Amino acid sequence: MKVRLISQGAITADERFPDSNPDDKRFKRRLLAEGDSWFSLGSVPYENLLMELDFPERTIVVNIAEPGDEIVRMASSRHVKAFKRLVANKQNAYKWDAILLSGGGNDLIDRAGEILRPGTTIDGCINKTALRTCMSDISEAYRSLAAIRDSAPAALNQHTPLIAHTYDYPTPRDSGAEFFGSVIRGPWLFKAFNDAKIAEDLWVPVSDRLIETLADTIRGLASGPKAIPNLKVVETLGTLDRAALGAKKLSGDWRNEIHPWKGGYQKLAPKVVQAVVT
């Protein structure tokens, strides 16, 4: 059964609209989703990972994700208010069965201009100091969101699982997000690789190294002595068919350079569902 997906603004306790009340008893599972365009309702075209979630029980997802958002921005004092209100505010919070997070991809992509540099090898094309700083900032943002969860009054959501994912391998290419045939955002990595004057035969291996570093960072938050309690990381890396280098339209399981198309999200969704129900 596909989830009931609503925005924060659609929440209501009005009995005339039970499908928009997370506390309605018909819902057997309540999820909060915070993240980037892999989750957001503002994506173009209208498709995202959340829309493809399919549970055996009736499930509602309240979605506060925004296109292009960074995990660092989500956790900042200016933008974390919605998350805090729905997770930890005594008057407005709900008891969630899980909190889904999609974050870190845009942080890495937006800093690609600082991380990439001219080089003739994979290592030579990466500014390791800039990459470490980016990963540190991403880690701290995840920890900040977890701390808000753990600050909930009366342990409302202290034990609620946080569920993150490791993204997948994009192909740097001249393929941005389009609206009625016109590019409205991107391309992203393609520009950064060109600006850094990196040879095209290094684009894929260098990009893969960056994405694998991000995946390692997110996985690392769920293990070791400093692990975030009740953080699950869904292994999505390697799920999608890669887009062809040079392709400008839909290729493999990718709508454009960094976003899957509906069929790609359908491959990813069961992995998220499995993490929620187990």
How does this model look, in words?
This protein has 278 residues and is of the alpha/beta class. The protein has one domain: Rossmann fold (3-Layer(aba) Sandwich). It contains 8 helices and 8 strands, in the order E-E-E-H-H-E-H-H-H-E-E-E-H-H-E-H. The protein has helices at residues 71-74, 81-87, 105-110, 112-115, 128-150, 189-195, 203-220, 262-277, and strands at residues 4-7, 29-35, 59-63, 98-102, 162-165, 177-179, 182-185, 231-234. The strands form 2 sheets. It has a 6-stranded parallel β-sheet with strand order 1-3-2-4-5-8, with helices on both faces. A two-stranded antiparallel sheet has the order 6-7. The model has no long low-confidence stretch (mean pLDDT 95).
CATH class: Alpha Beta
Element-by-element helix/strand order: EEEHHEHHHEEEHHEH
- Mean pLDDT across all amino acids: 95
Indicate the overall shape. Answer: globular
**Low-pLDDT runs:** none
- Rg over CA atoms: 19 Å
Percentage of residues in strands: 5-15%
Distance between the termini: 17 Å
Biggest pleated-sheet summary: 6 strands, parallel
Structural class per helix/strand content? alpha/beta
Kindly state the percentage of residues in helix: 25-40%
- In DSSP terms (H or I, runs of 4 or more residues), the helix count works out at 8
Number of strands: 8
Q: How many independent structural domains?
A: 1
CATH architecture: 3-Layer(aba) Sandwich
